Amino acid sequence: MTPGLKTETLIVPFGVFPHQMGEQVVDRPAAERILARMGVWSRDIVVDYAHESLKDCGRATAAGWVKTDTAKIAENGVTAVIEWTEEAGKAIGAGEFRFLSPVFIMEGGRISGLLNLGLTNNPNIHSMPALSNQLSTQEKRMKKDLCVVIKELLKLPPDTPDDAVVKAVEALADKPAPSLRNALGDAVAMLGLGPDATDEEIVAKIGEMAAKNADSQNATAETMVNDAVSAGRLAPSLKGWARDLAARNPESLRVFIANSVPSIPLGGLMTPCVKGEKKLSESQDNVCRLLGVSVDDYRKYGN
Q1: Which of 57, 103, 137, 196 is most buried, by CB atoms within 10 Å?
Q2: pTM for this structure?
Q3: Is the dihedral of CA 67, 70, 72, 76 positive or negative?
Q4: Which phi and psi (to 5°) does residue 218 adopt?
Q5: Closest among 102, 90, 6 to 46, alpha carbons compared
Q6: Is the separation of the CB atoms in 76 and 13 below 8 Å?
Q7: Residue 87's domain spans which residues?
Q8: Cβ distance 127 to 17 under 8 Å?
Q9: What is the pLDDT of residues 69-107, one digit of tens each?
Q10: Can you tell me the distance from the alpha carbon of 17 to that of 19, in angstroms, rounded to the nearest whole number?
Q11: 124 lies in a domain?
């Protein structure tokens, strides 16, 4: 590795890591707290040798400095540019040191900041990638001609002329973003639209279908609530609550109604049970059968 090289490096990976002081959880909120603490400090963070700056050992030489104004949250964790000293650059290039080991600030059992980093061969996070792998890839790319790098990124043959490379880049820049029609493919036909439908038409159709589905669900919920009140399985005072539950989770309301015992009216008029009463209608009989209510109880409390 070139001495004094500045390289963008993974300094804190995402994950859950065991530690003798307790489990260390590095998720996005933890990463945001780390960046916030860097912003408050507004200074570079030291990378020392084997955590010497944490020990009572007198002189603790810096191996490099994390440029906190370059720190950002990436897909695999927090990255930042590290400016390495000449000595550290030679040591990493020679394989004398391979890993970074972050030291966290813990508050209330969670990570609230990054104190510093140690250049070591025994990191406290064992999944840290080797520095030589991270840095050599960047350094090799920096040493290459820019046109060569672009050819590699665009997967063009090495002997592609420069003017053809420029045209490939221009074509990539002019390439329109994929439309909804292309993204949905055959599903556009399921919406009742033709192959030439615009993105606006697709969005409008999906919105229309969503509105119709919502209206249908509301009507079904209203019918369910009214039927439950009529059958005595839901108190009229609970209709508002039941409608809200049906909108959020109709299955929960169905279970509630199915397990509710038909209420017996307290006071008011009751239909007397008279011998020789006419048979129940087909719909009344279905209500008794579905709700588990006896014919006598229906006749007695039905009104």
Answers
A1: 103
A2: 0.45
A3: negative
A4: -65, -40
A5: 102
A6: yes
A7: 6-147
A8: yes
A9: 999 999 889 999 999 999 998 898 888 999 999 999 999
A10: 6
A11: yes
